[in-house]
Amino acid sequence: MTLFLEQLLNGMQLGVTLFLLAAGLTLIFGIMGVINLAHGSIYMIGAYAGTYVAATTGSFLLGIPAGLAAAALTGIAVEFLVVRQLYDRDHLDQVLATFGLILIFNQAITMIFGRQPLFVGLPDALSGSVELLPGLFYPLYRLAIIAVGLLVAAGLYLLINRTRVGMLVRAGSTNREMVRALGVDIRLLYTAVFALGALLAGLAGYMAGPILAVQVGMGEQILITTFVVVVIGGVGSVKGAFYASLLLGVTDTALRAYLPGLLRQVMVGPEADALGAGISSMGIYLLMAIVLLIRPKGLFAGNT
Amino acid sequence: MRTPITTYLSLAVLLVLLVALPTLADLANYPAFTSVATRVLIYGIAAASLNFVLGFGGMVSFGHAAFFGIGGYVVGILYQHYSLGEPLFGVFPGSNQLLVTVPLAVLVSGAMAALIGALSLRTGGVQFIMITLAFAQMLFFLFVSLKTYGGDDGLIIRRANELGGLNLRDRPTMYYLCLTIAVSFLFLLWRIVNSRFGNVLIGLRQSERRMAALGLSAYRYKLAAFVISGMGCGLAGALMANFMRYVSPDMMHWTKSGELMVMVILGGVGTLFGPFIGAGAFIMLESLLAAWTENWQLGLGFILLLLVLYTNGGLQALFSRLFRRDA
Fold first, then answer.
1. Do A293 and B54 touch (CB under 8 A)?
2. Which domain holds residue B237?
3. Is 0.90 exceeded by the ipTM?
4. pLDDT of A198-217, one tens digit each?
């Protein structure tokens, strides 16, 4: 039971990380109709910039503004220089141009920081564990990630459903042309949404730093999972992204935790481990295939 | 359509050049070029297959590396069972005969394409891109976890397949084999594109609704095209396995799907020769940049970006814009 709760929390932690990425990606797609493969690179840039500053200054807190700023600025630059020209192109051009961006960012980071992964220690205040239930100790830092993720989700909910900007965002994802025709400066809105998405990706990257190794390629790994989240949740739906992230996070973690053990009862140890790991990695894709077969537009798709 | 005589002439000249290529490479004291050309031909077959669904059918598949990898693994797995002498699933004997392994590779990739296509084509647009990507990743992780067949490390095929008395380890022989297959494949594609089936496919890309109004079932045509395309990629994968004498899950990694797409767009979407030009350009670019700087991916990224943003229709369109103003 303790193990199960612990895995559930691990799953939620992965889930909120995915949500931070997926929220931006789904908004960018929903409003601008752009597939942005470089979203994972922005996550990586946030992680590198934040971790670098934190490692140099020794202060975890100082890393936060650094990571966020680097990610948001990169996002704005990418929108301004590249994505702006892709709004009216077909998906193929968008995929290829942003694939090019991935190559550029990966190589640039390798040139600046080298191939060695960066590490950052946990901040002192968050390095311990807490006893959530009798016998269930859980690292404070992971709990903090879950809390931040849920706070961001709540903030996004308020932003999108309760403010004027949010109204424009919702309107933009329903009918882009109409919003433009009503005289809204859609370009500014696009840049703002792109920057917001990049900011969230940077936050996710920096927070993942102490748990994972900060290295080139970290962006693509999570990017594909994020795409699965976006597609399962329904492209353009932040609510869908939220539920799908948690669903995926928990499913993936549970498969990885329990499947090798189950397989070991019918197979030899090492082979069971390998096959278990393989099938666990396939799990989320299988989930996506099933969801799309039942609801081809995803769970929470809008009318578009 | 009227084909000008100059087109036939330039095709004949091209063919002569391609046939003479290994000799020319030897004369230029650069025999390694034959290997490069073989790789171009193999990737060209794969890219042309992708282009068939992408350029002619308008289906943006981001998972075609899966079929490339399956084709390769069929050859690898059959060879492993042949060399160990134990039958596959306890029933089928392994094989090292090219005339057995390659057609089987094509069939198996076709069957996989039928399965993946039947499920993926229920969606469209961005969901189609993502679901094809997801299926390819699924297969990638499956092969990573199959320790029997090398897992992460892949399978080494100690000796290339046998085909009559030919020695496929010999570079020029392998080159001529690939050239023959590539030319036949291109001819086949040309026939398909210009057939009634091809016309329907192009019509579907332009307007699915119009085709439905004509009483045609879009789904069936698209699925058939997807299967043909998967078979082509499987063929390329099987040849690659013989050429490299090695298969690994990397063959079906998503970046490989991306590379195939880059080749298609480099050469020009929806053209017959484009993918081969694109494959050539991509491999040349890769080796030139890699020889020049360790950070070749940076250059490749910028070239790709500029190409997408500032040319419409890839290298072939660029050339025709430069050389034939009226085209």
1. no
2. 31-252
3. no
4. 999 999 999 888 888 888 88
